[in-house]
Amino acid sequence: LAVLAAGLEPAPVAEVPPPLRGLVRRAVPKAAVAAAEPVARRVAALPEQERAAFVLTLVRSKTAEALGHAVVDSVDPDRPFREAGLDSLASIRLRNTLNEATGLRLPATATFDHPTPAALARHVVSGLGRSGHPGTSRLTAAFLRHCRDGRAEQAFATARAAAAARRPFGADDPPPVRSAVLAEGAGPRLICLPALLAPSGPHQYARISAHLDGRITALSPPGFQPGEPLAVSREALAATMAAAVREHAAGEPYALLGHSSGSWLAHAVATRLAGGESAPSGVVLLDPAGPAETTPALLATLAWTLWSDEHVVSALDDDSLTAMVHYFALHSAWVPRPCSVPVLVLPAAEATHGVRLSWPLPAEAAPTGGDHFTMLTDHAAATALRIGDWLRSGTVRSH
């Protein structure tokens, strides 16, 4: 990786045009690093029985800040973050502030992997003293700089070369698939597959799940977190995700949900499971794109909208970027086949930077409010309403 990125340092933010400044992650200020060191040293100096309480107070304090609460006592240490109202952006914001305070490299999915303040605090305690300070690798900085300068093809080529050096897995040796429960209601069971655009994870569906009455689970494709391997082929990835869906469905009726490139995974899994005992009752595709039209230039255009938020761009790292580029490359020549499972396509009503996406197969369609990203955030309630109505419809129930 050092050879690939040698000499490629991020440009000073002041030199970046204002609309694209979110694409260049600022180096961690020396003051932030200095602030992290006393926290780590203080925890190390505390008696073991006092460390957990100290870190729990820190996590509760940062959670209160992320939620906009004035007092730490408003945060119940055992109440799940999702029940407390921590949405996708707030989750990433909490992760970033904890990284700055402790010097750890918590992933973007930290609040889903450790779903309560108490559980997250235990994870932070175990990690303190083992990790270095957060920062931007040369590979990630180079990738963002190339995108900023309009050289998306070069950015993707660099990341693809780095991805080739990562540990692979095939259909015969699948790694564990991370799961997160987003909601537990009495309505239809829904299994969500995140988009492949970094930083991929269950946080993408946090806002929508809050408006759905059902058991909502997200399954994350392997490769986006440190230590996870990458699928050697699209078939290996589809087989791994299909096996995880089958396991989590546990013989109960369920539907699949995918947004953007997550629709590719949802459709591939549904096609693989169709006709069997574990087949989904329906598939919902949120503003899906045909793989053939998803070029590096188009991806960079869409990514600029997502990565313009400093909290989101701060969650990018070598693992998530190389996984993203690798999986997009695996799907570049994929042509989705018609599926016998009922499919609902919900295209975004508004274009994103002039871009409108289209799904190459015929399906029931019902445009929903917002653009490619705001349909999951500002318009989450309306999007969830359409999903819920369709899942309860005769089309799905009769399948």
Short description:
The chain is an alpha/beta fold. It has 17 helices and nine strands.
Average predicted confidence as pLDDT? 84
Q: Shape from CA axes?
A: globular
Task: Tell me the number of helical segments per DSSP (H or I, 4 or more residues long).
Answer: 17
Within the largest sheet, what's the order of strands? 2-4-3-6-7-8-9
Helix content: 40-55%
Oligomer: single chain
Work out the strand percent: 5-15%
* Low-pLDDT windows of residues: 1-36, 131-135
Task: Give a written overview of the molecule.
It is a single chain. The protein is of the alpha/beta class and 399 residues long. Helix 9 (152-163) packs across helix 15 (318-331). Mean pLDDT is 84; it is low at 1-36 and 131-135. 44% of the residues lie in helices and 9% in strands. A 7-stranded mixed β-sheet has the order 2-4-3-6-7-8-9, with helices on both faces. A two-stranded parallel ribbon has the order 1-5.
Tag the structure with descriptive keywords:
399 residues; alpha/beta; 17 helices; 9 strands; 9% strand; globular; disordered N terminus
What's the helix and strand layout?
Elements: H1 2-5, H2 30-45, H3 48-67, H4 81-84, H5 88-102, H6 110-113, H7 117-127, H8 138-148, H9 152-163, E1 168-169, E2 178-184, E3 190-193, H10 206-209, E4 215-220, E5 230-231, H11 234-249, E6 255-259, H12 262-273, E7 283-286, H13 296-307, H14 310-313, H15 318-331, E8 343-346, E9 364-365, H16 380-391, H17 394-397
Parallel strand pairs: 1-5, 3-4, 3-6, 6-7, 7-8, 8-9
Antiparallel strand pairs: 2-4
Helix pairs in contact: 2-5, 3-5, 3-7, 8-9, 9-15, 11-12
